[in-house]
Amino acid sequence: MSIEINENKPVEILLVEDNPKDLELTLYALKNNNLSNHIEVVRDGEEALDFIFCKNAYAKRSLNNQPKVILLDLKLPKIDGLEVINIIKKSPETRSIPIVVLTSSREEKDLVESYKLGVNSYMVKPIDFNQFTQAVREIGYYWLLQNITAR
Asked: What are the backbone angles phi and psi of residue 118, rounded to the nearest 5°?
C-alpha cells in the first residue's frame, strides 16, 4: 500500500511496516490527525533501503528528496530494522534523516542496539487502540511539525 507520491513534493513519512494490522492502525492515526499528506509505505527492510537510496523501483526519486522521518519496525522480512538503521546512519547522504523505531519488541538488546546505531527515538507499540493512536499522533506532531532539521 502506498499513498501517491508527487515527485516534486517531499515525502514526509516513510513508514516501514510488514504487519497489515499495525500498518492500518498507523495510517488511521496519521490520517485522523491530518498528518498523512505525503506518506510512503514499504513492507520490508530491502524496500526501505531501495526507497532511501533511490534504487530499483525508486530509481527515479532524488536522493535529495528524503522523508522528514522514518517510522521503522524492527522485525522485518529480508533485511531487519537494525540493519536498515545501520546502513542509513553510516551513509553521509542519509545519516541526518530521523528514524523512530515503532516496534512491538521489548527486548533490551533491540533498544540498546538501536540507540548505538543512531536511532532518534524508540517506542514500543501500545496494545491498546487509543494509546496506539495517541502515540502515533504525538510522533507525527513532533517529527513533522516541531522538529527542525538541517537539510
From this structure: 110, 15
Q: Strand pairing of 121-124 and 69-72?
A: unpaired
Domain made up of 13-146: CATH architecture: 3-Layer(aba) Sandwich (3.40)
Query: In the structure grid, which three cell numbers stand for residue 63, read together?
Result: 536522493
Per-residue pLDDT tens digits for 21-69: 999 988 988 888 777 678 999 999 999 999 999 999 999 998 888 999 9
Using CA atoms in the order 58, 46, 98, 123, what is the torsion angle rounded to 10 degrees?
140
Q: Decide: 13 and 30 in contact? Cβ < 8 Å.
A: yes
Residue type, 96: S
Provide the β-strand partners of residue 40. Answer: 14
Q: CA 118: distance to chain centroid? A: 14
Say how far residue 108 (Cα) sits from the centre of its chain: 21
